[in-house]
Amino acid sequence: MPGIFDTRIGRNHALRDRGREGWHDVEVGHGHDHHHHHAADGGRALTTALVLNAGYTALQAVVGIAFGSMALLADAGHNLSDVLALAVALGAVWFARRPATPRHSFGYRRAEILAALANALSIVAVSGIILFEAVRRLADPPEVPGGWLMAVAVGGIAVNALSAWIVHRAARGRDDLNLRASFLHLAGDALASVGVLVAGALVLAFDWRIADPVIAIAIAGLIAVSAWSVLRESVLVLLEAAPRGMDPEAVGAALAGAADVVEVHDLHIWSVSSDFPAISAHVVVTHDSDCHRVRRELEELLQHRFGISHSTLQMEHRQARLLTPGAGAAGCTSACH
Q: Which of these, 243, 216, 240, 38, lies nearest to 138 by C-alpha position?
């Protein structure tokens, strides 16, 4: 599995003996207040988007019933799925803010990843339904009311574009899969509304009924492709792979190359959530070095060079008697006290 491996990295940076081994040290609390500040911003953005979309969906349903428009009622049903997706994302943000406990030592940050995964899967599912229905209509495009299509599209563009902008502004400068998934959901709906507007104009101007299913197919494909990155990254986080853009071997080599470090092994790098990377490792230092000083220096290195603020480093001393010429390497370390 990427990001979690049992290896020994010495000063020559040679890698060998890949496998997996567990670890038991737990550390809680790095970046706690920082995370809560961002969570509050994300929660407010999602709440605003939820209120806007819920109000627009209710308006569509009322007008659709009043005028007997199945098109409006169908679009209201589609927007209801967006409201539910935003509600799931918002619930995950607030749930992730719950404090850590002895049983849940990292807190509930993975709730945001689960929400992002659910959102991405729902985007793919909706795209599949749209694609199926659009292909079915290609052979015999039904007559659609171009005027109603354009009216609904204008409202959808306004509501979804505004909601997408609010969520995007909250996610700016952050690596939050939950907000990214919500943004893609809203941006995809805004794009779909643009497509509906174009289709309605073509129907009104040229009576091109086939424009409706053709544009729907294009929109469905584009939305599904945009959801792929969120789907892939959320699965990788759940599989505890190394964070996106981070090379575990480069991290190990940097640790092994620090002053007084002899070797690094049992190196594990993973993501608790999309913005919370973590690392654990065994670090062997020279027999006469101050292991606590070395640990602090390594923690600063991880923070400044790789952006990892949560680290659990088990320090070990290389025994002096085994540093003599001809001595074996097995069983040559002792725990740092």
A: 216
